[in-house]
Amino acid sequence: MKKNPLIVCLFALLFLAACNKKDYFRNTGLQSGVFKENIYEFLQQRPFLFDSLVQVIDRSGMKEILQKETVTFFAPPDQSLMFTMNAINGSRYAQGKDSLRIADIPGDIWRRYLSHYIFKGRYMMNDISRVDFARAALYPGQNIESYDGFIMNMGVVYGAYSGTQDVGPRTIWLSAVGSNFADLARALTEQVATSNLQPQNGVVHALAGTAFFAYGSDFIAVVNDNVP
């Protein structure tokens, strides 16, 4: 479960195949970011980033969805799960309760929150609307139902370069909107670190891992209320 704090900085190296740059060590040509594995296998084959996430997928019963259905998955790395499990066990210690592992949390709870990150169909960066959190009325991104019906917002932020607005790098952000459809400014949000990864049956956008799993929300309280 424990991960190196510099895990986010390694995305560029571990997902070089998605960067469309030449491999100067072997004459392999341009990398495309397209992979022959399904989404589940793609995550499983990258245990340094996703071994705990794969455990959550197995526990949630969503493995077959990520193997067979055409979906877009905003994959939270193990860093997010580490933050969350540490917070859960810190709160349980204060209550005199035993600490928990991923396997100790009921599968239906994992599914309820993991499904927030999964969307039916393929959404590449070019398919996602622009979002500007300071000008949400003008650039609101797009609200969309996640796999089990929770409302999320996905949007592309246009960065600045050398003081010029909107001409810099573009990044995808995923926000938990829920019932606050029009209140994007208050939504819990996280940035994508590596986008447009294309396993066989969909798209993976790897999140940066700077936020708690399920964005904090009420996940910790739900776990503590349902696990003695």
UniProtKB/TrEMBL annotation:
Keywords: Signal. It comes from the Bacteria. Residues 1-17 form the signal peptide. SUPFAM superfamilies: FAS1 domain. This is Fasciclin domain-containing protein.
